[in-house]
Design goal:
Helix content: 10-25%
Number of strands: 17
Structural class: alpha/beta
Number of helices: 7
Radius of gyration: 20 Å
Number of domains: 1
Order of helices and strands: HHHEEEEHEEEEEEEEHHEHEEEE
Largest sheet: 6 strands, mixed
Shape: globular
Amino acid sequence: MNGLALEPISGSKPAVAMREATEALARTARNGGRNLHDLVTAYSGTVRNAAGQVSNADSAGADLAQVVAGTGPRGPWLIGWDGSYRHFTFEPRHVRSVPLLDHEGKIIGVSFPTHHTGYNADRKAYRTWSRMPNRLSDTEFVPEIRIGRAGRRNPSWKDRGPAQPAPWAADAQDGMLYVHAHAGRRGFEIDANVGTDDDPDWRTLLAPRRFFGHVLAANRHFLAASGAAPRRPLLMLCCHAGNPDYGHALHATEVLHSEGLRHDVYATVAQNWIGWDKENGTAGVIVEVPAGSSPSDAVVVIRAPDEAAPPVGIGQEAPLAATIPPPVERRSGVDALLPTDR
């Protein structure tokens, strides 16, 4: 990446903390746990609302809960899972987020920080990165390849050639929007208050697929960035979100588009990192290129519909197939789900 000397936070090699963070919650899950989609499938028939009534999920079992009648900014009520597969309900407003501001103070995206200590603390890293005056990430990325066998906990890395034009470069004449969240095969990491406003109980949860889409679609920082640049392409700084086997970016983006937000969304198939050079004022993105593939295959794009979205509730089905009412008490999670094979 021209003129970009990477800081130790997440762009440099090995940047172990950032890479390990991708599946931090996954490693805490009990051995033999199946991936989250399968757990939801098995669990979909047993979700009960506060009145004890069974709510049904769709046939894929991927989405359990959605829009509940309400007023103002409240809702929808969503479900997130902790590392032991206990579920907690929350609203998007209960999720911790910080705006990404450029060097002029203009909002260009949102970060959902879940790592709060050490040299790689999310708030400091992404705030510093976004404020660099020369965002090379708007037009290029550095491809990187893993050395050694897949799944190795502390792999070695090497650059695969110099920086090259990013797949989104042609669409980013006026810049990009960015969304940051740590992610892995089980979903996006978020910090949510599952207590009350007066007695908060913050927990790191996994929000897969459409759940994260609803978090994003209702987030005030993202809506401010989207409103200021309604047609800018969006890059998910979320590892593995573009992996077609997981479908996280695809289904989250479907929610954004159903809400009338018209951004083309780009997401990496594997891992990604940020880097910056304070001396040169540059900021960039590094993208893992999976073994056996080319850099052009390391990023997927979900295009926005050309037509304008109809008003919500007119000629549309509910975004998700099942609903749950706001629980009487949000603090308690259910018992951990029974372990299943992977």
